[in-house]
Structures are given as structure tokens and as C-alpha cells.
UniProtKB/TrEMBL annotation:
Parts of the chain that traverse the membrane: none
The protein's name in its UniProt record: D-alanyl-D-alanine dipeptidase
Species for this entry: Streptomyces coeruleofuscus
Site positions for Transition state stabilizer: R77
PANTHER family with a match to the protein in the record: D-ALANYL-D-ALANINE DIPEPTIDASE
Amino acid sequence: MTEIVLMSDARIAAIPVADCGERLLDVRVRESIAVDPRKEDGSGAFAHLREGVLARLLKAQELLPDGVRLLFVEGYRPPALQRSYFEQYSDVLRADHPGWSAEQVREAASRYVSPPEIAPHSAGAAVDLTLMSADGQELDMGTRVNASPEESDGACYTNAPGIPPRARDNRRLLGDALTAAGLVNYPTEWWHWSYGDRYWALATGAEHALYGARERA
């Protein structure tokens, strides 16, 4: 895709899901991937991904140069939590733009939080992550992970102009490894990558998504 297609786009919702039934696996048992605690929850749900997504994440780690590691921030997100995130951000947008229609709010919100009915995180298909050095320092990516379009003045977009050269290089390094491993990026969030969800299906031309939203057992 050369255009930025948002998660709210009707083309995303129209893609069928044929869930392959893969398990949600805990990323924390794979020592090669560092897991950041910033999204830690009591159940450990945040650290889970579908089996196929985790396998591709491990492949991406192998493709990175020595001294650079993936830093996992968040994977699976229960549907109720996804709904809460979307509604909270929508409320902020409504307050800031009282003249916007419901559709305008939904579209703008989807730049940053996916509508809950199609959310890749709730399928265990998406991962938010960044890069870190061997000594545990996060690399400069131009913004923090999960910076909103408002906070970052649009610098959260993967190909945003004006990103410092070092941050641009680091984004490219992250993107090259994850793309080679089979994941796709959501272009309004440099840290958000997915495999097997509806957005991945649209980006790759797949006939259907491999993973749909699910409750964690």
C-alpha cells in the first residue's frame, strides 16, 4: 500500500477472518526478546502473541545486527481494554473538536487506537516494539513508543518528515528486519507491527485474515 489506509477504513472491516486457532504464547519465555514492563498487567496478557507472530518476531531479532535487540512493549490486548482505549481517546478528540461528526471522530481516533471490532492487538496479531542497545538503552526513534499524533505533531507517523537522521536510520533498521520476517507496519505508528490480522491481509493481498479477536483463556 502506498496510501495511508486507516484502521477505520471500510476495506479493513470487509476482509473476512478464518481464524487458524493458533495459541497465544508468552513472549517472556523467549530469552532472545527483551520485554519492557511499561504495559505490565496483573494477568500478563500484554506479553502474549499468536504463535505465528512470535515466530516471525524471533526471526526479525536474528536479522538485526550485533548489539541491537528488539524491545517488546505490548502484544495481546483483551477486547474490553481495547474498547476502553478507543473510547477514551475518542472522548478527548470530541472535546477538542466539538464540531466533528461521529465519523470524523472515529477516523481520527483510528490513527492512534484501532476500532475495537477489528483491532489487531485483540487478535494477538500485533506488537508494539522498539529497539534497544546491548546495554539496555532504547535507541532514538524520533518519538517515544505510543506518542499520539497530537503529542508528537505527527512525528509518530513512520515516514514523517523532519525526523532526525539517526532516528530515521533506526526506524529503517527496525522496519527492514520486521518486514523481512513477514510483518507489516501501521504507518501512523512506527512501533506497531502485525501479522495475520485484517490490516496485514489488506497490505499483502491475502484473501482473509488468519487471526480474529479472542478472549484469552
